[in-house]
Amino acid sequence: MKAMNIKRLTAMTAALMMCLSLISCGQNDASTADEAKVNSESAKGVVSADAGTGSGTEASSKSETVDAELNATDDVEYSAEADLGAVERTEKSMMKMDALEGDGGFKGEAAAPEAVGDPVGDPGPGEIDPGSVIDNDAKPFVLTAGEWKDNLNWGFFTNLVKNGTISYPVFGLDPTHRIAVTVTKEGTPAANQPVELVDSEGNVIWTASTDKDGMAYVFYKKDQTPALVRSGEASQQVTGSTGDDQQDRAGTTDAALEVSDSKKYTDTQVMFIIDTTGSMSDEIAYLQMDFSSIAKEVNDGHTTFSANFYRDEGDEYVTKCNPFTSDVQSVQSAINNEFADGGGDMPEAVTQILEETVTDNAGWSDTANKIAFLIFDAPPHEGTEKQLEAAVKTAAQKGIRLVPVVSSGADRDTELFGRAIAAQTGGSYVFLTDDSGVGGEHLEPIIGDYEVELLHDVIVRNINEVRG
């Protein structure tokens, strides 16, 4: 293995320390509850085994083995040996960052203290000093991330379920039974086409919308019997996998439909849904510094944005929602006014914010490409399973791609929850990594090999991918 460039790592660490000195993203004094939040590893839905072996590797040539063992304790915990690919991924990240250097410096570099902006007064709580950091041309703040799509690595995902490495349902969501439907018009992908999964009695089980490649994923529960997929006048009979125990439950069926219509949307709606509880200071600071840069890069004159925030019951607010707008500065101002506070226990008001931003419509257009980034580090509350399922099914029906961005301190249930909402809405699972050196420790997901990138690049790519 090629040795790490230690000098480069040292220099990069120094640059990150400069970034951290410019913004209020230090760690808060940890309370007992906060420590429990960071260190907790919920056992629900997680047992250990040798992951990533067998048939799962057929789905991705880049997959790697995740070695795990079962801890013989009263509480079953996931225990993984050191990931043999971690060093390679860190080195890859360093090489990626080296490649990003050029005129104007490293792409993730924060503006120097003497740079940009005219002071407009003292910043409020959680805001960044406008006299020291931001203008619209400032380089984005460094956060690194990985991306994974279970729908594109379905054999790998299925193997994890069948060998017991991961287990569903989690918070009432179960993506293990899936039918992948390809819809075409005259042999070419038909985008934005509704696809319904129907049971033998004619009841609609799931509705999804095809992506720019003409793909739609529809899901059903273990006690449901799918009989037909249809889109417009086209239909095809299907049968699904059945079985009551974990070993038999994961499966998929493929279907293909030829239709006479295809819709290309000009407009794009981009929503950010942000957990603003006390552990999220790094992620809030990142978005405060990088949102305008993201908007500038993806804005084609037909893109609107919305920023929405949530905490939990008993906090200053539970949810705070804003309409879609083309006024980037107003969205930036809304983000800049937020700061990390509240929370204290592990679950947060995830269900409530998804109800308000998805189930209750929140201004989503019927004729726009739609994507929502959920930036969070904690799962929803137990007892909200029906509301969660309704929100996810509504997102799938409307064609809203949910993209979770899982932050530091997350536990395994949060990962599985994020992967479920991503898979069931045709989105990507995005997770922050330790490569940036910013913030607390980040959970290594149970997935195959992935590329470490700047979070900025991952977000921009996902926005561009939803456009037909």
Question: How are the SSEs ordered, and which strands pair?
Answer:
Blueprint: H1 6-22, H2 32-39, E1 50-51, E2 66-70, E3 78-80, H3 86-100, E4 144-148, H4 154-162, E5 177-185, E6 188-189, E7 194-199, E8 204-209, E9 215-219, E10 226-231, E11 234-237, H5 246-249, E12 251-258, E13 267-275, H6 281-298, E14 303-310, E15 319-320, H7 328-336, H8 350-359, E16 368-376, H9 385-398, E17 400-406, H10 412-424, E18 429-432, E19 453-454, H11 455-466
Parallel strand pairs: 5-12, 13-14, 13-16, 16-17, 17-18
Antiparallel strand pairs: 1-2, 2-3, 4-18, 4-19, 5-6, 5-9, 7-8, 7-10, 10-11, 14-15
Helix pairs in contact: 6-7, 6-11, 8-9
Features:
468 residues, alpha/beta, Immunoglobulin-like, eight-stranded mixed β-sheet, four-stranded mixed β-sheet, 19 strands, disordered N terminus
Describe, in short, the structure shown.
This protein has 468 residues and is an alpha/beta fold.
Give your account of this protein's structure.
The protein is α/β, with parallel strands linked by helices and 468 residues long. It has two domains: 298 residues, von Willebrand factor, type A domain (Rossmann fold, 3-Layer(aba) Sandwich); 85 residues, Carboxypeptidase-like, regulatory domain (Immunoglobulin-like). It is 28% helix and 22% strand. It has an eight-stranded mixed sheet with strand order 15-14-13-16-17-18-4-19, with helices on both faces. The N terminus is likely disordered.
